[in-house]
Specification:
This protein is mainly alpha-helical. It contains 4 helices and no strands. The chain starts with a helix and ends in a 9-residue tail after the last helix. The relative contact order is 0.07. This is Endoplasmic reticulum transmembrane protein.
Length: 198
């Protein structure tokens, strides 16, 4: 009954954090490890009892077959005694067999759920790592976009500087041309200025 209760506890639905705490406690606690060691020794004795119950049941079945073949006058007490011995042998066989089967089943389910918990933890850690990397890659993408913006602004600023330099050159050339034309006009009209052209 305790094995059935424990099995029901293992497989019943419960929150993942509670299940994780329970299984980590059961797998890592030294007191539980000592109890498990004692249970393993107990199950060895149960296995010996199972073999003994199996041998008794086979022996009783052979005795029953031999009694049926003799066709002697059957005594009610003998038949009742035979039926009781067969019942006890079958009961012991079923009890010890079920106990051994449940112990194997319980151990296997325990380790399967423990593996599931470890896989779930590693999956959660991997998801967090991927989320962190995607956050970092998103930050990297944002920085790349900012660099492209600054580069375009720098190119625009350089082109504005080039435009300004071109405009200054054009203005100085136009100023020089204006002064030359003004000097020619003044010579042609006879109005000579005392100022020197820049």
């Amino acid at each position: 009954m305790s094995e059935l209760t424990l099995f029901g506890t293992f497989v019943c639905p419960m929150p993942f954090t509670l299940r994780k705490k329970m299984f980590h406690f059961l797998s890592e606690n030294p007191v539980v490890a000592k109890i498990q060691y004692g249970l393993k020794i107990t199950f060895i004795f149960v296995a010996v009892l199972f073999v003994d119950a199996l041998q008794r049941m086979v022996r009783i079945a052979q005795e029953g077959a031999a009694a049926k073949s003799k066709q002697d006058m059957a005594d009610v007490r003998t038949e009742t005694n035979y039926a009781a011995r067969r019942f006890y042998a079958q009961r012991n066989l079923y009890l010890t067999g079920a106990t051994l089967f449940l112990s194997l089943l319980l151990a296997r389910v325990f380790y399967i759920i423990l593996d599931f918990i470890h896989v779930q933890e590693s999956y959660t850690a991997l998801q967090a790592k991927v989320a962190k990397q995607s956050g970092a890659s998103g930050e990297n993408e944002e920085l790349r976009n900012r660099i492209k913006e600054l580069e375009t602004q720098l190119k625009t600023g350089q082109s504005q500087d080039r435009d300004f330099e071109t405009l200054k050159k054009q203005a100085s050339q136009q100023n020089a041309e204006y002064n030359r034309l003004a000097d020619e006009h003044n010579k042609a009209t006879g109005n000579v200025s005392n100022k020197k052209a820049d």
